[in-house]
Write a structure and sequence with these properties.
The chain has helices at residues 20-27, 55-61, 75-84, 94-102, 128-133, 158-170, 185-194, 206-212, 237-242, 244-260, 264-275, 284-294, 307-320, 330-337, 342-349, and strands spanning 8-9, 15-16, 44-48, 67-71, 89-93, 111-117, 122-126, 146-152, 175-182, 199-203, 217-218, 231-236. By secondary structure, it is of the alpha/beta class. Strands 4-3-5-12-6 form a five-stranded mixed sheet, sandwiched between helices. It is globular, with a radius of gyration of 21 Å. This is NMT1-like family protein.
Length: 351
């Protein structure tokens, strides 16, 4: 199989466009299947949405020959580019990777989950008008029942159920059941600004950023609860096998990077770079505030899952999200997604 090679990058993974002829030389001729395709050296071109939880991996892979971190404006964009082969790996919420990638036709057996990353809390941000509507009405005051409209990244996104739970807890008597629009994160932020959306749930610090920009207000009563998202790396299985060493050493490398990023000066270096990567934009000062709010004093754990962990999470997903009967067998799919050689490699390399 021919992998699309990522665009040539500068020293911090910002893509630079290749010309048509150069791109053709790199990719080889794919239209004529009878020709032997050029074997492109497999590079871990990894899509991510700029956010607090992506920072340790972004900092660790800077300058690494095996990795190319490519910013994307939405999880949907990452999934599309994984399906077309433009990306080899992506940082995705667990439920979106399963429902929108692994369960697509001809994708089972293609993907592996070599890492689970430390996930940061999600934030509920509401427009000023929606925030007022979500407050209990004053006694003896009649109010028109109103349906709030929220943006979500996928039909099966756990943020949908986080919103439903929040509304049941804080506003079930004076708000109609919410409506949802499936949109990329950047359009959600624009929807808040334009007033076409009433709110969104987003990984920190997007909610904080929207509030600072005057496009919304964080609701302190919001808790993700049992619908909290897991952020994982989905990668093509054969590339995980070819990069056993990189993945085997990744938990220790990320643990070291978490410690380095505890220093404000080190953190701001990476935050400054991330702030310039594209959309959705996260200001470095907002990233630092989010880190102090959500990471200080908290043990951060990135780990390589085994088939038992994956099977358990698949079963929990099937219980929480109405996927339909027989969509997958949790034990079989968990075994298929588990990284096979990484643990053995890590064990032998530590001897």
């Amino acid at each position: 199989m021919v992998y699309h090679t990522p665009s040539v990058t500068d020293d911090f993974h910002t893509p630079l466009k290749l010309g048509h002829d150069a791109a053709h030389d790199v990719l080889g001729t794919v239209e004529n299947k009878r020709r032997t395709p050029i074997r492109v050296p497999p590079i871990l071109s990894t899509g991510f949405v700029p956010s607090l939880e992506a920072m340790p991996l972004l900092a660790h892979t800077k300058g690494a020959d095996a990795w190319r971190m490519l910013p994307c404006p939405s999880y949907g964009r990452i999934i599309r580019q994984l399906l077309t082969g433009e990306l080899a790996a992506g940082l995705l919420p667990w439920e979106l990777g399963i429902t929108e990638l692994v369960n697509k036709p001809a994708q089972k057996g293609v993907w592996c989950v070599p890492m689970v990353l430390h996930a940061c809390p999600t934030e509920l941000v509401l427009t000023t008008k929606a925030a007022k509507l979500a407050q209990p009405p004053k006694a003896n005051k009649k109010t028109d029942v109103r349906r709030l409209v929220f943006g979500i990244e996928g039909r099966c996104s756990l943020t949908r159920y986080q919103i439903l739970t929040w509304q049941l807890q804080v506003a079930k008597k004076h708000l109609d059941p919410p409506a949802f629009k499936v949109l990329p994160m950047e359009l959600m932020r624009k929807g808040l600004e334009a007033g076409t959306l009433d709110g969104m749930v987003a990984p920190t610090p997007w909610g904080m950023q929207a509030q600072v920009e005057g496009n919304g207000k964080l609701d302190a009563r919001f808790e993700p609860g049992k619908y909290a998202q897991q952020l994982v790396i989905f990668c093509r299985k054969e590339l995980v096998a070819e990069h056993e060493e990189e993945f085997a050493l990744l938990p220790h490398a990320l643990a070291d990077m978490h410690k380095r990023l505890e220093e404000d000066s080190e953190f701001l270096k990476v935050a400054d770079q991330m702030a310039r990567l594209g959309t959705p934009r996260c200001d470095s000062a907002i990233l630092l505030e989010a880190a102090k709010r959500h990471l200080t004093g908290i043990v951060q754990k990135d780990f390589q899952p085994d088939k038992e962990w994956l099977a358990t999470e698949l079963q929990l997903l099937a219980e929480r999200v109405p996927l339909g009967e027989g969509v997958f067998n949790a034990e079989e799919l968990g075994a298929a997604l588990a990284p096979q050689g990484i643990r053995a490699y890590a064990a032998t390399s530590s001897l």
